[in-house]
């Protein structure tokens, strides 16, 4: 017996559900490695990037909540447990110990670029399946692309 | 060469650092499984517990930030990466799929009880090493014990 | 002579206008029966559902304003008069006298499910006619589906 | 068996209940036709009256909530369903399609005048039955008479 | 020599003063037993009633301040000392140790019913003596009757 | 031709109108002499009374607005012109030049006592004519009596 | 013996004092006739001008406070009593009974023009005597000239 | 070497970039001529339209920021220099000297109509190229169409 | 069967529980006699002390809530019923009727001194038993000692 | 016939008007090139200067509004149209395409220096003509000199 | 090589710089001795003056920031080091140990009088050199003269 | 005769008093040299460090107030006069004239390190004497160690 009934067909729900679950993993992962960099950054741009990373984390947290609740709204229980994130998260950017500010900027720009590439694929995949889910993914992409530009601009000139 | 110099002796720093790193893992883990339950809870108490869990998550996030920055302030880079949390987190409470409200309340009460037991040990361990770190751990314990009581009270009568 | 000129073709305007007018009726109806339940609910979950219903009413009121003003913006006078709502409103959920909390939860979940089904049809219908109207309907659907999930989750286990 | 026990005698409760139920119908009706005019007004005073009507709607919504909850507090389930409003609402002011600003001002002044006349009768009727209900009706009358004056003043010189 | 001169006749002042002093005792008592229940409640409705009781306490505290200052304004020093409350407070509702949520709801509904009955008598008693005091008592009654309804509705079905 | 139509009979309107116009004069006068004392007070209690007088002025200004708009709502144009206030204001309390703090406290207490006496008469006079106006006058009296008590209490021991 | 010692020479203080006292009279007068018009205005621009007048009154009240306290700061007790305003106020603009909106706009523009002319003279008069007082008068003039423009612009085309 | 790398193909980026740059020019132009009218409007509707124009300017400024940053996020430097706006802005609505309120309303309605027509073309043009950019343009269109309706409604009856 | 399980040993819990329960009694008593003085104070310092007492009451109320919830968190139901306070409260400071400001200041300083003395003993008593409870008592002592100093300073020169 | 009458002589008005119109052009230009740099800046100081530029733009926008309304208040219609700004703006600082952060800092410092030089001339020019206008220009100069210092300090050591 | 270039001539800059540096010393000194009195005051007016002194300190701190940044804006590094303040501060008012409230009021009034006398000289000195600096000094004088009056008024009757 | 009585023994009070007085000197000194650097910093990190220093100053000011009032609460008048700070302040960090950003970061990190070392000694010294004072010093140390880390991290790599 279904716990939360869906308003979509089974195949549409599956497509949307996969897009949402993988986005959830990316966003939670992003929030964790964003905080990791927020705490471990060193260098003359410490304060500026330290603050910028907190905005990135806030964005990732807010969107992860929306994405998970969207999944639940479609009748699919979202999975954001530590072991799931550790197993499924494939974006670059995680690094242990103090990190130089230049490297933080470069890493975050790369991570965001990878995350956006995956989101663009999910936007296409969900167009027919569920325009409501697609609209949410478009909104996330817009915000992450804006944040990526800021790290890119900060990363100039690239070595 | 040390990146961030410490104001503690090496052994005191080591003791305080271990207490802080393991507390960090517990708190990040708590924030993740708190959100997991926030999204997957079902049952007649859905709304009430759904909201209460968000307060728990907010508490866990705020304290994890304070704990990680305290570690950095002692010259020890904190580690809050997804793989670290997945590997080091040992508290109960993680569960996949929809969860009945009764079970959520019971699980969270258990998780908090375990977390508090570990914090009490760290309070003792850091008393000599660093009273500043100890004071922070005392504050976290006070708040988690308050939240545990609320889930305990909600969990009555226990089956 | 046209009072407010439209920026759409006549047929596109007609399609969008119909979608908006029927959505307006659903939303005003929803706000009225949401308040009705808010006042008449009894049972051990009184306070929790009483508050949740006010959020539903606030959502329905805000969206009904947006929908009506979108209709006006297209040059079509919206109709939200009492007699229109009474005549055109076809969703379930209206009930006289005290209502038990379980029944409120079940009724609201049903009402929202019906409302969402109709919105999904209008999203398709307006895709070619007016993407601006479609985008508004997508946003309403996202929010109502989220609220439906909450009542569904609260409605578990279903008798 | 009574659901919500009353603190009034049966006849006092009946008198107060009738006054409250008919006031509820008037206020919900007022909020709907206020919004209708808010959306459909045209003419050089559009913005000014458009905003003023939203204050009237906010007043009517707030008071309708207070009135309905007062009825519930007396043990009488209030009835604010769409079909009830459509059937019981007898004030003037409802009009379909675009409405010229002059006419809006005139119509609202008339509607308020009629509503106030009915409230004054209910103030007298409830004096003995329930001074608490009477006090609420006095407060509503004070506010509606203030709003009526503003539309009256705006309506000068009358044609 | 009078400390604060009164603007009422001696007998009117005495009538109003008695009504205010006994209301003060009821309200302070209500605030104390409301907090007592807020701290000692257990059961599945813990969080919901725990929060509702804090609104009741806030109401009782605000009104006790207004009532005491009204007494002072009439030239009569109010008496809200611990020993006075303990001696003069006669409403039900006080209970030691953990209390089950069902019992809390039932007790508070009873307490409020008793308090309202006494207030209704004072409304009559002060009508001639001092309409300003009467108006204050009417306002308190309106609010307490509203809060009583909420506990009554939550208390359904009564065993 | 009447500019703003009244909802009262002619004689009731006359009674209510007189009560409101004379209250308006008292309140505007009170706001002016309150400010006069606020600026000219000297003595060791300067700051404390200086601040208290601003609360009195704020009260008098807010109520004068409500009273004047109530008069307009009854179809009677209020008169708050400088020459009217100067001619009609008969309360004590006006004084030129620096004023010692003791004298300010004594003067304000006297002024408020006189104002309240007049308000009590108007409460009686308007009971039959217009309970809505009476209710407003009761509210003003409650607030002014509270403020009078504070100045009285501050004025102890009286010389 | 001087109550509040001045930091200016006697003649400078006299010049500044006269400028401040006459400005005080103008501003209090302006606040009173602004409110008078706010209450008595009728016509199709009622709401718009009704709100604009309240901004004028707020400006006049704030500046009258600053001007009176500046006078006190120079050791000169300001005089803002009703009888002083009535005797010394010479600006146009006072009018009894309902006033048509066109006339209100015209009257206020005239009043402000007269007030500004007098302020310009005082700016010149205080330049040598006290640049601190002059700076305050310049600030008042800037604001009143801005408000005058708004009424002038609203007054176009002039009949 | 590219300064900010794009996540789109070259042709998609060119299409989106052109749509964004021309929208930027329209919005900055709109904000400038909106302020121009805000300052130069005269006539009996001065205050009402003066305030409405500031809302239009705020909208145009906020959207111009979003549009320019979206262009940067795609790797294309936006151009909002004075000379660019002057050269590229082609919407009607610019006018020197005082402007009668009727003419302001008419001009703004025309300007918005032209701006919306161009936005509708860009919505179509960007559908394939970049749904994220399209979604932003849809949001801008929704808001400008709402504002256009308000000026249209205010412009009735058209001469 | 234990309702709320404790995380302390039985003897530690007993020690901490006694300290918390007696502190709770002191703080509720303090809040009641603080309000008593707030209402009954007379004399030239009325306003100043009247306001200061409300800050003391707010402090006492906030801390009593924290202390009671800490007791519950340790598994011990707190007791704040009127009869308990009346029986267990042993601090000085309670007084009936109007009180002269000098006496209020002296009484409150004495009451706080006694309360602090008892808190200092409980700080020692709980050091081993429960450092979390001790930390809370230290925080309360810091605040009460600050408030005591203010009344002491105000009480100078002592007669 | 004059639309808005001036309170200055013709020659004084001309002098003040020229100063205001040229200041308006400078400030609007400054707001546009400030935004241009805000969007196009790249380099390691991206975030810091990006934010600082938005404060500059906010300053320029606020002052341009004040300056334009001051001109209108003097009876002179301000001119802030795109073509006027493009033709009359002569300050340096405009640049197309991405700009390196060092260059942005240098350009803005230069632009502000030029703007301030022109303001200093207008302060002298308006001293006799209109001290009210002069006071406004002094205020703008103070703020721009502060912002110039910040860019100068950031620009050190200069190459 | 100059670090921050000035927009003034060398001699004007020197004059303005001296006025600013000596004002900076006075204001920092004032903030320190204001806090000293805030902490050490005793006597029946403790609370009232304790609070008033914090407003004085807030004023002195805000102005010292503005003055120092104005100096920097003129290209002159301000000097607010402890040793500079101790060496250059010449105003009265510093006192060790507890201070009776009467003496605090007298001392602060004297200190402010001395500070104002020095500011008046600097206003004259900077008139030609830099009207922007002069305007700032005028604003500081206005505020300090207002605060001086309040202490003077509180200081009456002087012994 | 003691002005403010202490709740500590004489020797405990002396120990706590010395710790508080020397902490007060350090914190006031820190606030002054923090502002000095805030005003005189130059270099590419100007804005970032300029803002960070203001947070340090706010921290130092808030803690200096708490420390001084704690001293007063123990019956010991705190001494924060300019001459005391200049004589007793021994931390590094004071520097005249413009300071390069790198040097500011290095100086502040050193100053904080020295201040923290002294605080750690006082934490030990006050443990027996007064745990309330110790707890305050622990809280200050936690915050200053956090701020020190931020400057340290910003100071990497150290030359």
Write the CATH fold name of chain A.
Ferritin
Report helical residue fraction of chain A: over 70%
- Major beta sheet summary of chain A: 2 strands, parallel
The tally of domains of chain A stands at: 1
The overall average pLDDT of chain A, rounded, is 94
- How many DSSP helices of chain A? 5
Q: Which descriptor suits the 3D outline of chain A? A: elongated
Within CATH, the superfamily of chain A carries the name Ferritin, core subunit, four-helix bundle
What oligomeric state is this? homododecamer
The counted number of beta strands of chain A is 2
Distance from first to last alpha carbon of chain A:
58 Å
**How large a portion of the residues of chain A is in β-strands, by DSSP E?**
under 5%
Instruction: Please compute the radius of gyration of chain A using only Cα atoms.
Output: 17 Å
CATH architecture of chain A: Up-down Bundle
Q: What's the helix-strand series of chain A? A: HEHHEHH
GO molecular function (chains A, B, C, D, E, F, G, H, I, J, K, L): ferric iron binding
InterPro entries (chains A, B, C, D, E, F, G, H, I, J, K, L): DPS_DNA-bd, Ferritin-like, Ferritin-like_SF, Ferritin_DPS_dom
Family (chains A, B, C, D, E, F, G, H, I, J, K, L): Belongs to the Dps family.
Pfam family, one (chains A, B, C, D, E, F, G, H, I, J, K, L): Ferritin
């Amino acid at each position: 017996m279904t716990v939360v009934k869906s308003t979509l067909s089974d195949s549409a729900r599956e497509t949307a559900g996969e897009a949402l679950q993988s986005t959830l993993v990316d966003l939670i992962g992003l929030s964790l490695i964003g905080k990791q960099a927020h705490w471990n950054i060193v260098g003359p741009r410490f304060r500026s990037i330290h603050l910028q990373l907190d905005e990135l984390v806030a964005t990732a947290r807010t969107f992860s909540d929306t994405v998970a609740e969207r999944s639940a709204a479609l009748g699919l229980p979202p999975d954001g447990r530590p072991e799931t994130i550790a197993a499924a998260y494939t974006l670059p950017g995680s690094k242990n110990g103090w990190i130089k500010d230049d490297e933080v900027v470069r890493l975050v720009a790369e991570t965001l670029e990878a995350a956006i590439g995956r989101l663009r694929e999910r936007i296409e995949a969900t167009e027919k399946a569920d325009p409501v889910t697609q609209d949410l993914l478009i909104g996330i992409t817009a915000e992450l692309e804006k944040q990526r530009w800021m790290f890119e601009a900060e990363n100039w000139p690239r070595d």
